Amino acid sequence: MLAYIISVVGIVAFSILRLIHNSSKPGVRDLPGPWLAKYTDLLRVYWAWKGDSWITFQRLKKEYGNAVRIGPNTIMLSEQGQFDKILGFKEDFVKSDAMKVWTPMQDGKPVGSIVSTRDRKVHANLKRPIAGIYSMSNAITFEPGVDDTIKYFLKRLDETFMTGSNAGKSCDIDNWVQYFAFDVVGEFTLSSRLGFLEKGLDIDGMLHDLNNEIAYRGLVQNMPVLDRWLRKNPIYTYLKSPTNKFVLRARSLIQARLSEVKHAGHPDFMDRFLEAQKQYPGIVSNEVLGQYVATNFLAGSDTTAVVMRTILYYTIRTPGVLAKVREELDNSGTTYPVPYKTAQHLPYLDALIREAMRIHFIASFLLERVVPASGYTLPNGIKLSQGTIVGMNPWTLNFDEEIWGPEPDSFKPDRWLKGESEETEIFEKRLAVMKHNDFSFSYGPRVCLGRHIATLEIWKVMPTMLGLLDMEFVHPEREWKVEGYFFARQSDMDMRLKWREGVNREFYIE
C-alpha cells in the first residue's frame, strides 16, 4: 500500500514539475496569452473542436497582439513580414510534429509523404520525381478534359435543377461544386471522372471518409501525443486495418492501371507517376507511389471547393460585383467554357478571385514551424530558443488595414485594381504589398504543389458559371454556415438556378 501511495505521489509530483517547466520556457514565457495555454495544448484541441478556430485566432490577435502564447511551447505570430521569413527559403524552419499526425499508415508502419515529411531534404527528394507534373505547362495540357467536365457539370445542373419538373428546385451548390472538384481530380489523375456529378452524391463513401480523416487529424494535430495514444498505438493497429483508406483506394487504382495493356490517350498523372517510379526507383517505392495518388484525392477537392463556394457566395451577395464581372466577360467576347488564356487577361475576374481567397482563407489550422538552432528574434526583441513552435494563419493577416487598405472586413475586388484617380506608381506599390502578403497557396519550399491545377480549374469554371447562369439564394436573409477542424468548410448555400437570358441552353448541354 505504501509503495502504491509513493508511486502516485511521485507521478503527481512529476506532472506538476513538468507543467511548471513547460510554463517557464525562456522566450515563450515572456509573451501574453490565455492562462491555461502555459500548461497544456488541450486548449488548442478545444478551439479546433469548436469548429471555428480561425475566429479564436482573430480574437487572440485583437486581445494580445501580434505574438501570442497559445501552448506551453507554441506561439502564434500575426505580424506582417513574419510569414515569408519563417515559411521562406532562407530560414531553416522545419514543420512541427503536427505533421506526424498526417503521416499515413501502410501495413502498420508510418510512411513519409510529400505532405507530411518534416525534413526539407526528404521533401525535396520526394518532390523531385513529380515536380514537373504539377507545373502550369503540364496542367494546361489537361484543359480539354476540364472543359468536358465543366460542360457535364452544366448538363447535370440543368437536368437536376433547371429543366422540366425540376425547374426551380433548390440546389445544394456547396455539395455540387465539390462533386465537380472531385471529378476534375479524376480527370487529371485517371483520365476519367469519378462519378460524383453523374450520381449527384457521395461515391463509395469517399467524401464521408475524407471528412472523417480531416476532422480527426485536424483535432489531434494540435496535440500530436493524442494520435500516438489513439491511432498509432500497437493495440489499435492490431485490431483495425493499419492502412489508410485512401491509400487502399490508391493501390487499387494503380493495380487497375497496371493491368491495362496500354493506356490510350493523353498521359495522365497516373501515367506520369508510374514513369517517375521507373526513372527514380530508389525514391519512388510502391509505398511512395501510393502516396502520390492518394494525395491527389485527399488534397485536390476540398481546397478548391472552399474557394469556389466563397466566390459564388460573395459575388451573389455583394451588390454590383456580379454585374461587373459579367460586363467584363461579355465585352471580352469569350466562348464558354472560358479558355484559361482568356481568363488570364480579365482583370476584374482576377481581382474577384484574389479577393475571395483573401477574405475566406481555406484552412482553419496554424502553419507550424520549429525554431532552428540559431534561435529567432521577434520584432519586439524577444528571443525564441531552438525547438519553440511558431504558428501562423492568414486569417490573422488577411484583415490588416495596413496591408489591404480600408474596410478589410468587406468583400471588395476593386482593392486589387487601380483606382480612377490613383497614380500608377502608388497603385503598383500597393498591389505589390498585397501580393507579397497573399499566402493563399502557402509560401516557400512547402508551397502548395497543386496550385497550378487549382488555378486552372477555378479560373475556368467560375467565370463560366457566372457568365451563363442566374443564381439566387433560397434564403438570402441567412448567412452560410462555416465550420471545420482543418478546412474552413462552408454549407447551407442552397440556390435556385436558371440559364441567363439569351443563353442558348442546348449549345452547352449537348
Q: What do you see in this structure?
A:
This is Pisatin demethylase / cytochrome P450 monooxygenase. One of its GO terms (molecular function) is oxidoreductase activity, acting on paired donors, with incorporation or reduction of molecular oxygen. Its cofactor is heme. Belongs to the cytochrome P450 family. Heme binds at residue 448. This protein has 510 residues and is α+β, with helices and mostly antiparallel strands. The chain has a domain at 103-362 and 440-509: Cytochrome p450. Helices cover 50% and strands 9% of the residues. The protein has 23 helices and 14 strands. It has helices at residues 2-23, 42-49, 53-64, 82-87, 120-127, 136-139, 143-162, 173-190, 196-199, 206-220, 225-230, 234-239, 245-259, 269-279, 286-299, 302-317, 321-332, 340-343, 347-359, 401-404, 424-436, 451-468, 505-509; strands spanning 67-71, 74-77, 94-95, 105-106, 109-110, 171-172, 367-370, 376-377, 383-384, 389-392, 469-473, 481-483, 489-491, 494-499. The strands form five sheets. Strands 1-2-10-7-3 form a five-stranded mixed beta sheet. Strands 6-14-11 form a three-stranded antiparallel beta sheet. It has a two-stranded antiparallel ribbon with strand order 4-5. A hairpin with a 2-residue loop joins strand 1 (67-71) and strand 2 (74-77). Helix 7 runs antiparallel to helix 8 (173-190), helix 14 (269-279) packs antiparallel against helix 15 (286-299) and helix 16 (302-317) packs across helix 19. It is globular and about 70 Å long.
SSE blueprint and pairings:
Elements: H1 2-23, H2 42-49, H3 53-64, E1 67-71, E2 74-77, H4 82-87, E3 94-95, E4 105-106, E5 109-110, H5 120-127, H6 136-139, H7 143-162, E6 171-172, H8 173-190, H9 196-199, H10 206-220, H11 225-230, H12 234-239, H13 245-259, H14 269-279, H15 286-299, H16 302-317, H17 321-332, H18 340-343, H19 347-359, E7 367-370, E8 376-377, E9 383-384, E10 389-392, H20 401-404, H21 424-436, H22 451-468, E11 469-473, E12 481-483, E13 489-491, E14 494-499, H23 505-509
Parallel strand pairs: 2-10
Antiparallel strand pairs: 1-2, 3-7, 4-5, 6-14, 7-10, 8-9, 11-14, 12-13
Cofactor: heme
Protein name: Pisatin demethylase / cytochrome P450 monooxygenase
Organism: Venturia nashicola
